[in-house]
Design a protein that fits this description.
The protein is built from eight helices and 13 strands. It is an alpha/beta fold. It has two domains: about 220 residues, Ribonuclease Z/Hydroxyacylglutathione hydrolase-like (Metallo-beta-lactamase, Chain A), CATH 3.60.15.10; about 60 residues, no CATH class. A hairpin with a 4-residue loop joins strand 10 and strand 11. The chain binds zinc ion.
């Protein structure tokens, strides 16, 4: 494994802890207040999960180790649910949509996790899908729920779009939004479900970030985005992306192009668009262009 490192150490003034994984640039996130702590999507490798747990228990702390009172899983993609069982005694909060996944979806998620375990050399035979049926400390919420960590308020908001079970976490006192898989690569929307809902989620994010003066977004992968202006600019890059992609797709669909061909043409048209905004075209971006085009085109047909 690549050695994880601490991106945000957690101090009295800024009690956010972020452990950057060697896997997919994953950010395992947590926060503490007083003698309590919270972990959000706790990490990829067991060593990182342990590092997050020990940082949460001990950073900026003179007393006995803090209790990790809460774990939040933003959604059920396999990189986000790893480690939920490694905080005995914690209350685990998940969107109801995570618990409601049918057996076939759960199996796909667990198979995905097992495949990753194998490449990582991780042995995790007792892992179970997170839901109230599998553990009494797992609790679901509908649209929104509020937790307390010490004296800090932590809100979890359902925000479907990236997946059909996604949520984001808002810490008002620190003006910090943990965006899950939203804004992981601003300008290349990472949609794994339906484009229309993803675009609606972007509008929600924009209104939320503007209305609440969000000053920091910590996505579950890649870089932290700071200042409200930069956050809004990042969201606008994503909104504009769909505003460029959608008309192309509509045109190709109206012209009766077979879907495979339409996906290719629409995805290719995103290259000059993205590069005009100084975005480098990586292989991952190309893959995401095709994926996004396919999702828009499927809505049209
Ligand atoms: Zn995801």
């Amino acid at each position: 494994m690549k050695v994880p490192y601490i991106l945000l150490p957690g101090t009295q003034a800024d009690p956010l802890v972020v452990v950057r994984s060697g896997f997919w640039n994953f950010n395992a996130i947590g926060l503490f207040d007083g003698d309590e702590a919270l972990a959000v999507d706790p990490g990829a490798y067991p060593e990182e999960i342990a590092l997050l747990a020990s940082a949460l228990a001990t950073r900026a702390n003179e007393g006995s180790p803090r209790t990790i009172k809460h774990v939040i899983l933003t959604h059920s993609h396999h990189d986000h649910i790893r480690g939920w069982m490694r905080f005995p005694g914690a209350r685990v909060t998940i969107p109801r949509h995570v618990a409601d996944k049918p057996e076939i979806s759960r199996k796909r998620i667990l198979d995905g996790k097992t495949a990753i375990d194998e490449t990582m050399g991780v042995d995790d035979p007792d892992f179970a899908y997170p839901c109230p049926k599998n553990a009494s400390n797992v609790h679901t919420f509908e649209q929104q729920t509020t937790l307390r960590v010490g004296s800090l308020e932590v809100q979890v908001h359902l925000l479907l779009g990236h997946s059909n079970c996604s949520s984001v976490v808002w810490i008002p006192a620190h003006k910090t939004l943990l965006s899950g898989d939203y804004l992981v690569a601003p300008g290349v929307p990472y949609c794994r479900w339906q484009a229309k809902e993803f675009e609606e989620a972007l509008q929600w994010l924009r209104t939320f970030c503007e209305g609440n003066d969000v000053q920091r977004v910590i996505p579950a992968h890649n870089d932290i985005i700071e200042t409200n202006a930069k956050i809004l600019a990042a969201i606008d890059l994503e909104i504009d992306y769909f505003q460029a992609l959608r008309p192309t797709c509509t045109e190709l669909h109206a012209a009766g192009l077979p879907i495979d061909q339409a996906i290719r043409v629409a995805a290719n048209a995103m290259i000059p668009f993205r590069e005009s905004r100084d975005h480098v075209t990586t292989r991952a971006a190309r893959r995401q262009d095709r994926d996004n085009a396919e999702r828009v085109l499927k809505e049209l047909s």
